């Protein structure tokens, strides 16, 4: 009798794999490529693993697949016009899927992602720039609304004074009516007009 197939899937395996490869790189173990970067006279070398760089960057994938032969135990790759700090952040991202950078470096990280054809980093930078832009637009909108409310509150006292004057004028008119009340509703509550005395003398039979 044939049994049903079941799926064995680990949620933590990809993270553990990245963490282990990151530790191996930091310790310099099993590294088979040295990347030399130079920018305006500042130069630095980074050791890494070909498999990781090729899996995360189409640029490195093309370099490694097209290399004729290896001179030594490690392949050497030279990158010009790439800042040392930016490539260090790039390496941290491809080995850990995250990196912390200053806001003003996000655009530079996007440029290095496009230069090295790293789609994951490019999308991450693009999304972050979009969030930053939306945040700035929201702040501008809030500032504009607060300015408008301040302008409205500045003009409000004049409107209040006008409404108060109108209310006073209406009250004066109510206290001094031009025409005497004709309808019974307008007369005093005791039903006797003001000209008549309160008690009427009885007529003699």
Task: Report on the architecture of this protein.
The protein has about 200 residues and is mainly alpha-helical. The protein has a domain at about 15-65 and about 75-135: Potassium Channel Kv1.1, Chain A. The protein has 6 helices and 3 strands. The chain has a 3-stranded mixed β-sheet with strand order 2-1-3. A hairpin with a 2-residue loop joins β1 (about 35-40) and β2 (about 40-50). α2 (about 50-55) packs across α3 and α4 crosses α5. It is flat, with a radius of gyration of 42 Å. It starts with 12 loop residues before the first helix and ends in a 30-residue tail after the last helix. Mean pLDDT is about 80; it is low at about 190-195.
Named at the architecture level, the CATH assignment of the domain at 13-65 and 73-137 is: 2-Layer Sandwich
Runs in which pLDDT lies below 50 for 5 or more consecutive residues are 189-195
Determine the mean pLDDT.
81
Largest sheet: 3 strands, mixed
Domain BTB: 31-103
GO molecular function: DNA-binding transcription factor activity, RNA polymerase II-specific; RNA polymerase II cis-regulatory region sequence-specific DNA binding
Region (Disordered): 147-205
InterPro entries: BTB/POZ_dom, SKP1/BTB/POZ_sf, ZnFinger_BTB_dom_contain
Which terms summarize this structure?
flat; 3-stranded mixed β-sheet; SKP1/BTB/POZ_sf; 54% helix; mainly alpha; GZF1 protein; Potassium Channel Kv1.1, Chain A; 205 residues; 3 strands
């Amino acid at each position: 009798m044939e049994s049903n197939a079941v799926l064995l899937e680990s949620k933590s395996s990809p993270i553990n794999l990245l963490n282990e490869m990151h530790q191996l790189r930091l310790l310099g173990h099993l590294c088979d490529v040295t990347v030399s970067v130079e920018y305006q006279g500042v130069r630095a070398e980074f050791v890494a693993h070909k498999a990781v760089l090729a899996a995360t960057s189409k640029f490195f994938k093309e370099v490694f697949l097209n290399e004729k032969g290896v001179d030594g135990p490690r392949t050497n790759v030279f990158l010009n016009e790439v800042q040392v700090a930016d490539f260090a952040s790039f390496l941290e991202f491809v080995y850990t899927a995250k990196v912390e950078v200053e806001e003003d470096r996000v655009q530079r990280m996007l440029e290095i992602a496009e230069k090295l054809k790293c789609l994951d980093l490019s999308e991450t930078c693009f999304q972050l720039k979009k969030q930053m832009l939306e945040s700035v637009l929201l702040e501008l909108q809030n500032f504009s609304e607060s300015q408008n409310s301040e302008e409205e509150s500045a003009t409000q006292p004049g409107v209040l004074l006008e409404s108060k004057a109108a209310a006073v004028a209406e009250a004066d008119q109510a206290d001094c009516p031009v025409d005497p009340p004709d309808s019974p509703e307008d007369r005093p509550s005791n039903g006797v007009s003001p000209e008549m005395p309160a008690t009427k003398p009885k007529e003699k039979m």
